[in-house]
Amino acid sequence: MTGRAPLPREVVAMRIARELEDGWYVNLGIGLPTLVANYLPPDKLVVIHSENGVLGVGPAPELGQEDPDLCNAGGQPVTLIPGGCLFGHAESFAIIRGRHLDVAVLGALQVSEGGDLANWMLPQRGVGSIGGGADIARGAKRVYVAMEHTTREGEPKILRQCSYPLTGRGVVNAIFTDLAVIRVSPQGLLLEEIAPGWTPEEVQARTEPRLMVSPALREIRL
Amino acid sequence: MTGRAPLPREVVAMRIARELEDGWYVNLGIGLPTLVANYLPPDKLVVIHSENGVLGVGPAPELGQEDPDLCNAGGQPVTLIPGGCLFGHAESFAIIRGRHLDVAVLGALQVSEGGDLANWMLPQRGVGSIGGGADIARGAKRVYVAMEHTTREGEPKILRQCSYPLTGRGVVNAIFTDLAVIRVSPQGLLLEEIAPGWTPEEVQARTEPRLMVSPALREIRL
Amino acid sequence: MPGKPVFSDPAQATADIPAGATIMVGGFTGRGVPVALLRALRDRGVGGLTIVTNDLSGGWSPWEDAALLVEAGLVRKVIASFPIPGSASTPTAFERLHREGKIELELLPQGTLVERIRAAGAGIGGFYTPTGVGTPFAEGKEVRVIDGQEYLFELPLPADFALIRAHRADVLGNLVYRRAARNFNPTMATAARVTIVQVEEALPAGALDPEAVVTPGIYVQRLVLVGGAA
Amino acid sequence: MPGKPVFSDPAQATADIPAGATIMVGGFTGRGVPVALLRALRDRGVGGLTIVTNDLSGGWSPWEDAALLVEAGLVRKVIASFPIPGSASTPTAFERLHREGKIELELLPQGTLVERIRAAGAGIGGFYTPTGVGTPFAEGKEVRVIDGQEYLFELPLPADFALIRAHRADVLGNLVYRRAARNFNPTMATAARVTIVQVEEALPAGALDPEAVVTPGIYVQRLVLVGGAA
Asked: Nearest residue on chain C to A68, judged by CA atoms?
């Protein structure tokens, strides 16, 4: 059954990091997406943007070396790379809304086959925080979702229609889960890569909309 | 006849300078308005804004001491006061449009009794340059016109309606000429001050719309 | 040369803020928050406030922010992008009051929030943003197709007072900020009738690099000197 | 760490600008103009251009600017606020060509020009400005009353290329400007598909104060090193 375990979060992050091209500017959401920063290709210029006015987020500071004024969008202390720079929210969201970010990697509660994203509110709570999510989902040139393929209860998170309030409509380009890499295309969802030991039928069983299986389907590799 | 001479430009500038209150931010147009900077009250904080991104314009530099990168909106070399600061056009016109300037002193080709301002184009030329005029005329909290009372040919420049293309509609608050100080009010033009040796009738004869004469009419004093 | 009014007492600097005022409060996840000004307002007990701020910690983080006004029962309405923490395990004062219908919320995407504030400061009557199309943030908003793409119409968001925090100021009110403590502060400075700045020092005119000034003094009405970390 | 492409030859850095392109050119009254990039474009003779720039000296001042493209007959249309000098005594090449109907002009108030450029860079679909209401600048434009005041609707103004000039750059494309040579340069940097920067040096990453950077490198595609005053 070892071959049947879903991929660890770190492997999903590593897989996404492989997508990042030289010269790209990238916004990473809270949680799994933040892990992508740990696997950036050192031979490429990939600059991390944080919507609270930081371009060039560096590694987490050593304990005790935190700068109280320097944090990411989640409030966690960060560092600045050489050549990083700082600005206010007006400029930061001009960058986001103006489609200057090459990719945003975001977590999700639900994704629809049309690329709708829901990631900010559990309806049963009655109130939620949107933060910069709606701007980033709509503004980045590409939106990659990074998430577990199903809920803890085993329910699909990839749905025909999202039931939760949307963050953005038709914004997701690709979904990276612990089971699969799925592209969102005008024709529907295309299963391109699959976790070692899993079959397309097993992934389909955990996915509500019909998946098209790529003729070039391959195992997720790093 | 000496008492009958129009006031020199410098006196008009000095009169306007007396209007400026402590803490005011002021934009000065090209020509006569620029002279106002020479008569700022030293006991007050009056800061000169130039729309090309300079806040705190200082006196003209000594010959040979010009900074090639530091100029006013007319392209003339200027200096920066201590505490002055620099920014780009986006910020500069956010300041202007956002009504942060306490007063703009502008030249005029024509002013109407409704406070319309025409100061950018001679129709016979067929083409003109508006520059920042339309933004400043509309954006400043108060617009003071500084000009000769008539054209060189003796024609009135204060008219019932402007015949030249407008810079701004209903924007002028007061007109300072070499003959008079006239407030623009909802009831019409109010003659408040008059050059020494001149009578209201003589000023009226050089002004197209009817002037109301202030009961407190006084000579222009410095 | 004279300069801006400089206060050493936050209570005195905020004494004319009336009940019912609309107040912008700078800061993001606790950084760049004018905590001393907020405490002064809370201690005076000015009620019925509308607070425009990005986020409310509500005791969820070690940082203080406008949540302290909410906890004191002084806030009627909050306009924010992140009013509650992600975790629902311990509801904040805001979440409880909101659930009880005692506090109103206008929830805005963060970029829409800051751009509406900028519009108010920059004299823009309204603008079209692509953010929120097809989501709950579009509810009740005019949709317009421009160049084949849908946008939402958004109005400017001004305030009576802006309470902000800067790293350094000069006596003419020019401001610079430190690291990510800049956030909403410079934009809010432009959009209020009265902008009040918490800062540690008011330096002489000329002490700041004129090219590195972030907030030109024209936007600033009062400086409040508050030493140390408060 | 890798960085942005750095050119030493202005001709090479602008070699892919095609005839008919829309090009923003930074500068104001000659300050902050990317003169070396303009000369390279002129020497290549790329025609049919639409030029977005604040002003054209046309030999009226000692400064060079985009007027040199107009004089070379390469410009189809100019979008500007100050296309001709105030004095009519010696008509410029632009004024002559415009009178002959050989060059088109879109004349915009300076603040509307820069805000339209900002809107393009910031993803704003359009905005309402009070500037120009009741003047010739309102012709053909939608008027909307917002909160009792009239505004004109303005669309974003993007470009294919922005040619700008900065004082200092680092290899990641972060830029700072000097004095009033900043003007339109940082705004134009945000609004073009390709932004090309004339600068004297490309400093190592980390050489610029991160809080004083005016143009974040994300907006910059190419750096062109041009020594001295050109």
From this structure: C31
Q: Please give the residue of chain D at the shortest CA–CA distance from C176.
A: D211
pLDDT tens across D218-227, in order?
999 999 999 8
Contact residues, chain C, for D119 at CB < 8 Å: 127
Q: Which two tokens stand for residue B121?
A: 């184009």
Q: What is the ipTM of this complex?
A: 0.98
Element (H, E) at B128: none
pLDDT at B44: 87
pLDDT tier at D228 (50, 70, 90 boundaries)? Answer: low
- Residues in chain A within 8 Å Cβ distance of C124: none
For residue B180, the surrounding DSSP H or E stretch is strand B180-185
pLDDT for the residue numbered D86: 83
Which of these ranges, A1-15, A163-177, B125-139, C147-161, has the smallest mean pLDDT? A1-15
B115-172 residue pLDDT tens:
999 999 999 999 999 999 999 999 999 999 999 999 999 999 999 999 999 999 999 9
Tell me the domains of chain B and their CATH numbers.
9-213 (3.40.1080.10)
Q: Which residues contact B136 (CB under 8 A, 6 or more apart)?
A: B27, B29, B51, B96, B101, B104, B106, B143
Residue A195 contacts residue A218 (beta carbons within 8 Å) = no
Measuring CA to CA, which residue among B48, B43, B39 is closest to residue B11? B39
Q: Are A44 and A17 in contact (CB under 8 A)?
A: no
Distance CA A200, CA A207 (A): 10
- E-assigned strand segments in D9-121: 22-25, 49-52, 75-80, 104-107
Q: Which of these, D205, D5, C183, lies nearest to A47 by C-alpha position?
A: D205
Mean pLDDT value across chain B? 96
pTM (2 d.p.): 0.98
d(CA A77, CA D57): 50
Interface with chain A: mutation pick from D6, D170, D172, highest number of A CBs within 10 Å: D172
What type of residue sits at position A126?
Answer: G
- Contacting B with CB below 8 Å, chain C residues are 1-4, 118, 120-124, 170-172, 174, 190, 204-206, 208, 210-211, 213, 216-219
**Residue A1 confidence (pLDDT) above 50:** no
CB D219 within 8 A of CB A91: no
Query: What tokens does D209 get?
Result: 């104060």
Per the CB < 8 Å rule, is D109 touching B51?
no
The tokens for B213 are 């004469």
Domains, chain C: 6-124+156-225 (3.40.1080.10)
